[in-house]
Design a protein that fits this description.
The complex is a heterodimer. By secondary structure, chain A is mainly α. Chain A is built from 3 helices and no strands.
């Protein structure tokens, strides 16, 4: 041991002093740098972990929100489709009603026109009949005035009395 | 109270129905006085008409108007009178004749409130109506 000390010129006292210095330096380093550093590191780790958890939560929430959003959109689409379908049905119903009404109106107009035509036809026919009847009666009257003598008139009166 | 011409006529008929001709003048004089007292002289025309109706009804008399296109001979008028008597149930028929050329032929008989139209004019008009129908 002494030989080793002699060979390397080791000064025990200096070594101890250096060891104390080293210990002091180590202590100083430990308490003032390493410990706060470790604490800071731990805090950061906790923060990072918390952040990661939060991020996961956020991501999860985001996913959930996305699903909800999708569902909402799906629901909205469904409702929009239902409204559209309803509107379409209403429009179709209205259209059908309008078509039926239009058909009825057309039918009514046709019937009215038919009735009008028939009335006109009947009036014309009546007029023609009246004209013909007037002519027949006028001709008969003329013939009777010329041909009916007192004997025929007397026979006619006898016939009236006997009937 | 207002007395109607019909009531006057009925009363007059009751007064004269079984009286002799000699008494009629006096009865009529009284009747006219009665009308004057009642201020009903203006009703006399209607009273006469009503009286005629009652008289004819009670004595089974019918007044008829015969309208023809030409003047009718006596046998035809007689035939028509018999016809009217048969229809009305009257014993006597007093007829007046009227000529209306536009009847063309046949005859129209009016008695009481009845009209028997057998004229050719009406027949032709009926024919015309039938043809128009």
């Amino acid at each position: 041991m002494d030989a080793l000390i002699e060979t390397f010129h080791i000064d025990i006292k200096l070594l101890i002093a250096q060891a104390v210095n080293f210990a002091i330096v180590i202590s100083v380093l430990y308490f003032f740098i390493l410990k706060p550093l470790i604490k800071t590191m731990k805090d950061r780790t906790v923060k990072i972990e918390k952040s990661m958890v939060d991020a996961e939560k956020i991501e999860e929430r985001l996913k959930k929100t996305e699903v909800e959003h999708k569902e909402t959109i799906k629901k909205a689409k469904k409702e929009a489709n239902a409204i559209l379908e309803k509107a379409q049905n209403l429009a179709n119903e209205k259209k059908d009603k309008m078509i039926i009404k239009a058909k009825e109106e057309i039918g009514q107009i046709i019937n009215e026109e038919k009735a009008k035509v028939q009335q006109e036809k009947a009036a014309t026919l009546r007029e023609i009949k009246s004209e013909i009847a007037g002519l027949v009666v006028a001709t008969t009257e003329r013939v009777l005035e010329e041909k009916l003598d007192s004997k025929a008139d007397k026979d006619l009166i006898k016939k009236i009395v006997k009937s | 109270m207002d007395i109607t011409p019909k009531q006057y006529a009925a009363a007059l008929y009751d007064s004269v129905k079984e009286k002799k001709k000699n008494n009629l003048k006096a009865i009529l004089k009284e009747f006219v006085k009665f009308l004057a007292v009642n201020n009903d002289i203006l009703k006399s025309e209607k009273i006469i008409l009503e009286f005629e109706k009652i008289w004819n009804k009670k004595n089974k008399i019918v007044e008829a108007e015969i309208i023809s296109a030409d003047v009718l001979d006596k046998p035809t008028v007689k035939l028509l009178k018999e016809y009217i008597a048969k229809l009305s149930g009257a014993e006597q028929v007093f007829s007046s004749q009227l000529v209306e050329k536009n009847l063309l032929g046949g005859v129209v008989v009016k008695y009481g409130d009845k009209i028997i139209d057998g004229s050719l004019k009406t027949r032709l008009n009926n024919l015309k109506e039938e043809m128009i129908k």
